[in-house]
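Dear Dr. H.,

I hope your travels went smoothly. While you were away I took the liberty of generating a structure for the chain from your last submission, since the lab meeting agenda had it listed for discussion. I wanted you to have the full record in hand beforehand rather than looking at slides cold. The sequence, exactly as received, is reproduced here:
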Amino acid sequence: MAKKDGTVGAAKEEDREKWMARFQVRLAMQPGVDRAVVLQAVKDVTAHCAETGEHPRAAFGSPDAYAVQAAERLVPADRAAREKPARRSGGRRRLRAEEGQGRHGYVTG
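The corresponding predicted structure, in token form, is as follows:
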């Protein structure tokens, strides 16, 4: 039975790590977020989960949604607004119907 418990614990740890990894990536994609913001947000989540014993998903919900909330909380609005247009395009532009479309309707360039 100890082996089963260890497997369950390992699975929970792997799920927690996946949540944290996705949260970090999604947070880094938010306008105005720099390394310091990501580190602070990870520290906050880690501390909360260590204190309460909660899984990050139980405490904060979806990593994608919480990344948006954390960015809104930690990034000054003026900095986020300055960076938003540059990040939004990401080097892609939406094609108009008459231009023709690739598989997903986007073209790089």
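Two observations you may find useful: The helical segments are 2-28, 35-52, 56-60, 63-74, 77-89. The first strand starts at residue 92 and ends at 94.

With kind regards,
E. W.
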